[in-house]
Design a protein that fits this description.
Strand content: 35-45%
Number of helices: 2
Radius of gyration: 23 Å
Order of helices and strands: EEEEEEEEEEHEEH
Distance between the termini: 36 Å
Number of domains: 2
Largest sheet: 5 strands, antiparallel
Number of strands: 12
Amino acid sequence: HVDREGDFYGYALLENFRADKMSVCLAPYVPFVGIGDPDIWLSVSGGPFTSIDPAEMKFIGWEDGVFSAWGHCGPCANGSVRFMAKVAKWECSDPEPLYGDFTTETWRKLYVRINDNPESRYRYVADGTAFRDDSDFDRFKKNYEATVFNHSDSMLVVWCFRDKTEFLQEDEWNRLDLPVQERI
C-alpha cells in the first residue's frame, strides 16, 4: 500500500471487510488466526489502520504469509505456533498522491525544517542531517537529485536518492562499465 503522502507499506495486511471497505493494518505484527463459526477469524495488531475500497486493489500474485495460532491449551505462555501459508498479494495506492510518483519504496523522503533563527548553526534541519546555509542545501539537492515540495512556511518535503553502500572487490569494481561522475 502507498498512502497519499507516498509512504510505502510492503507488508500491509487486509484485516477485515467492513461497510464496503477493507480494513488494512499498514504495519502489522504476526497475526493470530483461528476457526470461528462459520469462518476463519484473524486478529491483528500493529498499526496504523486505514480503509481501502476493494475496487482500487489490484491482484499481483501469491506469496508466503506468516501466521500464529494458539495451541491446544489456548492463550498461554509459549502456547502459540507459527506457520506459513500462501496468501494473495494485492497492491493499492491512494488515488490523489501529494507528491506524484514519489514513494518511500524507492526514494528517500526527508522532512526539512527551515530555521529562521539567525543565531542557529544550521539553516535547514532534517532527521539525521542538517545544512548550514543555502549553498550547503543546494549542493545536497544537486548530489542527490532532489525534488523539493513546500509542506508549510517552515517545512519542506524533499524526495531524493537513497544512500546505499556496497563493498566490491577491486577486480569487480574495475569490471563495472558505468559512467563516472564526480560530485562535491
